[in-house]
Amino acid sequence: MDFNLTEEHLMIQQAARDFAQNELLPGVIERDEKQQFPTEQIKKMGELGFLGMMVDPKYGGSGLDTVAYALAMEEISKVDASASVVMSVNNSLVCWGLQTFGSEEQKQKYLTKLATGKMIGAFCLSEPEAGSDATSQSTTAKDMGDHYLLNGTKNWITNGSTASVYIVIAQTDIDKKHKGINALILEKDMPGFSIGPKEQKLGIRGSDTHSLMFNDVKVPKENRIGEDGFGFTFAMKTLAGGRIGIASQALGIASGAYELALKYSKERKAFGKEISQHQAIAFKLADMATQIEAARHLVLKSAWDKDQHKNYDLSGAMAKLYASQVAMDTTIEAVQIHGGNGYVKEYHVERLMRDAKITQIYEGTSEIQKIVISRSILTK
Ligand code: CAA
Question: Quick check: CB of 132 below 6 Å from ligand 1?
Fold first, then answer.
């Protein structure tokens, strides 16, 4: 068993680390405070190939594997989880889904722009009444022959206003339940499509999250992904990979907070010595380092499973469940180690603590991951 990263993986990791330090760190506190989307930074991420990491170079992507993507996600998330959620949705939920299941025409028309960041994508599954219970879609896509007529509302959509392309999951035939659901590609300027106000969030405040409304939007038939009724399977398969991305994000938030706490503990003195020399702090650091290492193994194992074309539903769900718990626990401890300084913005850890929470909620709550894991182990 070889735990060494390849030269290429190390290079990608370093490139993402440098980008995060040089381009994302300056201004990250202000963007969080003002709920400001990192427009310039995302543009640069597109130019550097971070938005289409696993896309074939013939469609403008970087042609890298999932391990490289997970390593880059960790580094970006250490510094700016708002930028990394944009990266995660674009890579995992939009580009990967289109590359794997889209038609050649859809790839030429949309993927080439999405992979280079010329367009940003959004994935629209959640509804006011269908977040975890994804089969209960009330958004409808009525079959009108040469087009679908889309009606309904989606909630909590990442990249809600910055996206140009939206993959919308909608019910075509209610009698067929989840087998009557379709995934449609919607363009921002299609008549009848509107965007609700920006959500005021606890964390990942630099990312833009909105409700979306569809009122008799005509979506051409050629914009359906896969066969009629493939939409739910499309969503499940896409989310399974998306969970590896969010697990990497959670890992990055945890390791970012840990690195800050470690550094601070060696600088801050109390009772005549550095606080890292007090066992109360040293033991916290030991727990954090151990949990982060375990989370990293789960994340990289699930990415490796995907690259080896093994089933990654189980390992991805385990990685997300565990890494998001570690993100929450570690960031709380990082604030504690910083004491009063941890509670103020300039030390970054309070933001990481707020950002950590969403990793236990989106792309399937922790409870959903436990459903996926328990079903998998019980049916083996
Ligand atoms: N791959 C392929 N097919 C799958 C699958 C997978 N990973 N998981 C389920 N399916 C299929 C099943 O095989 C089944 O098909 P058949 O009937 O043909 O066998 C069908 O889907 C229905 O499966 P279930 O009966 O298991 O469905 P369920 O209603 O019990 O729910 C669930 C399963 C796992 C709970 C699912 O509803 C789920 O994942 N929910 C959470 C959805 C979610 O992650 N939402 C987050 C929104 S996206 C987001 O957050 C993006 C963002 O902004 C960052």
Answer: yes
CA of 236 to the centre of ligand 1 (A): 5
Q: Are strands 165-171 and 193-198 parallel, antiparallel or unpaired?
A: unpaired
371 lines ligand 1 (CB under 6 A): yes
CA-362 nearest atom, ligand 1: 50
Question: SS3 of 182, please?
Answer: strand
Per-residue buried b or exposed e for 210-241, using 16+ beta carbons within 10 Å of the residue's own CB: bbbbbeebebeeebbbbeebbbbbbbebbbbb
Atom of ligand 1 nearest to the CA of 237: 1
Q: Which of 90, 127, 236, 367 to mutate to test the pocket of ligand 1 (most atoms within 8 A of CB)?
A: 236
Crossing angle of helices 81-88/349-358, nearest 10°?
30
pTM for this structure? 0.97
Q: Is the CB of 370 under 6 A from ligand 1?
A: no
Q: Helices marked H in 268-309 — which ranges?
A: 279-307
Q: What is the pLDDT along the chain (380 residues), one digit of tens a residue?
A: 889 999 999 999 999 999 999 999 999 999 999 999 999 999 999 999 999 999 999 999 999 999 999 999 999 999 999 999 999 999 999 999 999 999 999 999 999 999 999 999 999 999 988 878 888 899 999 999 999 999 999 999 999 999 999 999 999 999 999 999 999 999 999 999 999 999 999 999 999 999 999 999 999 999 999 999 999 999 999 999 999 999 999 999 999 999 999 999 999 999 999 999 999 999 999 999 999 999 999 999 999 999 999 999 999 999 999 999 999 999 999 999 999 999 999 999 999 999 999 999 999 999 999 999 999 999 97
Looking at ligand 1, which atom is closest to the CA of residue 233? Answer: 3
Give the catalytic positions in this structure.
Answer: 363
